[in-house]
User: Which sequence fits this backbone?
């Protein structure tokens, strides 16, 4: 069973619908006992980092997530869920979970591409240049694009963790992986066929066990 | 780099698909969830549903449509029409829509934009604007006036002013519909689109007038639109979305070509 972590950060039902479509059993949950039973954890989220972190702390879900990482079972971060596993976010100057060394930064003002001003948030479909093989990111056509909506982007300290880069005036980390953790800045549940492919791959992935 | 989005717009009344020409003489053309699935498979980047139902029974049917759509397509879609309160927004979002679009209700009570943005995030709130070209005046300095109630009521608000105001209030995107161009299939209002898009920092979706792939090319390049709404040209099978996207791709517009 796949657990979708419910920490009141936006609408979790779109991830659930995608898993339903893929014939996966899942639970939207914030219950530690249910998390223990789960084989996989999806940590989604839309919203602001400050509010998300204060809710995670109040409910002690921050501890549950740290514990999960140590079990070696696979975890997938999506969008805000990816951002809060870093050390710190510039959004609301928030101290985050610190599971991955690195920071979450705001897109600079006056971003440009070929002389045109770029708008923030970065919203819409963009290409991800995948750098290396990884079971979660297998079988994606080269020209695949993914759906993004965000004003902040992850900047891991160790670039060896980066699986895919995206260009939006600057180059930023759109997908990363380390041991039993995979994380994406885009929304695989809203990225059509290649997005569903990533979710299906994740459901089959055995995390650290596989290495 | 970010791709320009091609967005089919489906008008829905009592759970059925229609396409209004200049907001009159609507003709029923099918099931919205089935149309959405076809457009998803043809490579639509997003889908807009506009609910023109008047009755509250019809609204419940719409929620059901949204739920069915959310189970079959895995790209973002928005729902507009008749949304007046945060509670209305919540129902639609919980049923599976990514974004909600508000129009007349936001003109009457601008704080609705702000309330929606705080409840669901800016990215959920699309401000729909119906705009008509008028003579420039002290109250309408841009020469474009906002109209409400499906283009029937003038209210003395300047379109450029309203777009900037909506951005400040927390709109995540603007869907800009030209009443003059809507339903003509003679092309988008390029000047209007360019004016609004270059004066706000949120994405602008051009709407009204699409009849040929060239029209999309002009509005996405000269018009500086971030996305283009299409209706009749695909509803009546004149073009498929993949044909339109291939044309734009061949004319150097950044387009998502793999789906």
Assistant:
């Amino acid at each position: 069973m796949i657990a979708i972590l419910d920490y009141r950060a936006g609408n979790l039902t779109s991830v659930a619908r995608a898993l339903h479509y893929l014939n996966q059993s899942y639970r939207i949950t914030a219950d530690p006992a249910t998390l223990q039973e789960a084989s996989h954890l999806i940590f989604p989220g839309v919203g602001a980092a400050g509010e998300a972190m204060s809710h995670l702390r109040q409910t002690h879900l921050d501890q549950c997530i740290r514990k999960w990482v140590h079990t070696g079972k696979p975890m997938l971060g999506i969008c805000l869920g990816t951002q809060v596993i870093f050390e710190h976010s510039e959004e609301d100057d928030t101290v985050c979970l610190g599971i991955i060394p690195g920071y979450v930064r705001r897109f600079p003002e006056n971003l440009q591409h070929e002389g045109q001003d770029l708008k923030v948030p970065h919203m819409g479909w963009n290409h991800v240049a995948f750098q290396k093989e990884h079971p979660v990111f297998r079988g994606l056509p080269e020209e695949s694009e993914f759906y993004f909506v965000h004003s902040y982007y992850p900047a891991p300290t160790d670039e060896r963790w980066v699986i895919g880069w995206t260009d939006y005036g600057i180059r930023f980390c759109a997908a990363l992986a380390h041991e039993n953790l995979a994380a994406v800045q885009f929304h695989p549940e809203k990225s059509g066929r290649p997005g569903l492919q990533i979710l299906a791959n994740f459901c089959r992935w055995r995390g650290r066990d596989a290495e | 780099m970010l791709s320009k989005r091609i967005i089919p717009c489906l008008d829905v009344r009592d759970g059925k698909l229609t396409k209004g020409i200049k907001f009159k003489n609507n003709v029923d053309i099918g099931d919205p969830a089935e149309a959405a699935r076809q457009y998803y498979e043809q490579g639509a980047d997003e889908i807009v549903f506009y609910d023109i139902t008047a009755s509250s029974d019809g609204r419940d049917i719409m929620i059901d449509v949204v739920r069915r759509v959310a189970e079959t397509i895995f790209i973002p879609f928005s729902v507009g029409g008749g949304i007046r309160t945060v509670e209305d927004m919540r129902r639609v979002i919980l049923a599976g829509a990514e974004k909600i679009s508000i129009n007349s209700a936001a003109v009457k009570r601008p704080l609705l934009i702000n309330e929606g943005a705080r409840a669901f995030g800016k990215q959920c709130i699309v401000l729909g604007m119906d705009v008509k070209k008028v003579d420039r005046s002290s109250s309408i300095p841009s020469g474009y006036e906002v109209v409400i109630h499906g283009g029937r009521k003038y209210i003395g608000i300047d379109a450029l002013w309203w777009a900037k105001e909506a951005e400040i209030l927390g709109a995540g995107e603007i869907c800009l519909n030209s009443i003059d161009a809507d339903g003509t299939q003679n092309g988008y209002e390029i000047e209007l689109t360019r004016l609004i898009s270059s004066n706000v920092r949120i994405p602008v979706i051009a709407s009204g007038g699409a009849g040929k792939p060239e029209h999309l090319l002009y509005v996405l390049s000269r018009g500086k639109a971030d996305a283009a709404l299409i209706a009749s040209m695909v509803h009546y099978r004149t073009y498929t979305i993949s044909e339109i996207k291939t044309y734009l791709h061949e004319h150097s517009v950044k387009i998502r070509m793999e789906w």
User: Anything to note?
Assistant: Chain B has one domain: 5-250. The longest helix of chain B spans residues 56-72.
